[in-house]
Amino acid sequence: MQARRAIFATALSFSLMTIPAWGAPAAALGTVIAADRAHVGEAKAEVGTTVYGGDSLSTEVQGSVQVHAGKARLLLLSSSSAVVSDVEGAPAAELLNGAATFSTGNAHAFTLFASAAAIRAQSDAPTIGQVSYIGPKELLVRATRGSLLITVDNDTQIVAEGTSYRVLLDQPEEMAQGPEGAGSGKNEWPGGRHEPRKAGRSRFMYVAGGLTAVATYLAVSEALESAQRP
Fold first, then answer.
1. What CATH number has the domain bearing residue 181?
2. How many domains does the chain have?
């Protein structure tokens, strides 16, 4: 009888060791360091709140929330929302609406996704970028400090410090058809599908003079820079 119990106990302990930890909680990505009329999930965001991968962040009108994650910081502005995640071992977030500012200490510290675009620092130098989500097909991106890289599909644009770009994520039909235009049949594959765009206007459009909200963004950036100083 004792031998049977010993065998059963050994088998049970082995089975527990081989069961994957599906129920393990997500790893902590960062901590809320400032919050005003903001939420983490359904709960009110407060200083010291831990943020995990998959958590949603949102702000009310005139609200804001700032998260420190490794060598990066993310600031959501008024009436904005995002979902944080881990991408290849580094913090990331997807901006769903509104506007966000992020700062990084190196090129791999953070990536901000917005619709089909990925925005990150170009180098390991301290970088501050701002992204406004105009809609699922349009963004406004500004590099306040350092340079940014915007990648959409296989296209990448460098945003130099102090410049802004309008990003068209889904170009109008006439921009993708080529010079012959629609219905000519010369740029179509069987079934009426258009041949991939070979030339035409870039999806990245330089914004002369910056964005309308530059003054607000610069104030926010200064706050981020101040927070990074010893």
1. 2.60.120.1440
2. 1
DSSP β-ladder status, 50-52 and 56-69: unpaired
SS (H, E, C) 24-77: CCCCEEEEEEEEEEEEECCEECCCCCEEECCCEEEEEEEEEEEEEECCEEEEEC
What distance in Å separates the CA atoms of residue 214 and residue 29, rounded to the nearest whole number? 29
Domain-embedded: residue 98: yes
pLDDT at 206: 75
Residue 138: CB atoms within 10 Å: 17
- Is the residue at 94 inside a domain? yes
Range of the domain at 104: 30-228
Collapsed DSSP state (helix, strand, coil) of residue 97: strand
pLDDT tens digit string along 128-170?
999 999 998 999 999 999 999 999 988 899 999 999 999 998 7
